[in-house]
Predict the structure of Orotidine 5'-phosphate decarboxylase.
Amino acid sequence: MSARPASAAARIIPALDAGDLARAEALAGVLAPHCGLLKVGLELFCAAGGPAVAAVSRHRPVFLDVKLHDIPNTVAGALRSLLPLKPAMVTLHAGGGPAMIAAAREQAEKAGADRPILLAVTVLTSMDAAALAATGVADSPAGQVLRLARMAVAAGADGLVCSPHEAAMLRADLGPDPVLVVPGVRPAGSDVGDQARTATPAEAVAAGADWIVIGRPITGAADPAAAARAIAASLPG
Ligand SMILES: O=C(O)c1cc(=O)[nH]c(=O)n1[C@@H]1O[C@H](COP(=O)(O)O)[C@@H](O)[C@H]1O
């Protein structure tokens, strides 16, 4: 797939966070004309596995958000098992360290030109400074995101998952190459829920996000397609 989205709507990645495939497939069908990729995350993948990826792939390329985090050999093996599903993007936790990321990249390369974009998740967008401190990290979320991002890209990640608050910093520090995928995005007035570091879709894109990941504000709307269209209309072309 193209390394960058070609239109405002193509920047949108709806998160199909559903516990059953029928609901996810219905959403995929409705949202496909209004987005670039569709995200299969842990809830759907744990419920329905590979068939969920295959079903959603019939509508749009799949961002497979499984947030791999284990020893290098296990992560490489997991990726080997996932590659036949042909996801366009796969996530792994940057906190797994450089050897884990390098092992994932080496495994991904075996898929050739078709290989997925590997995205390293930095500090989850649900975490504020206090939550980060509770894990033993004394630095600010921005400082920790920068440290993890530099390490992950140097180790072989193609891009990063970060909050809208760190996108401009990462773009300035790392240059134009790393793909930035940004969740924690909330249209003005919508419920923040468990997200801590948020901004609007237009703010996230202005800060340098290539793609924005949006779940509940789209999937929980009375008319999910209309919600996605409104978000696209709020973005710069
Ligand atoms: O990797 C992700 O996509 C991710 C990373 C992160 O730091 N924060 C985050 O919210 N996500 C995912 O993005 C989606 C956000 O969903 P909403 O909060 O409903 O918009 C969920 O599917 C999360 O799993």
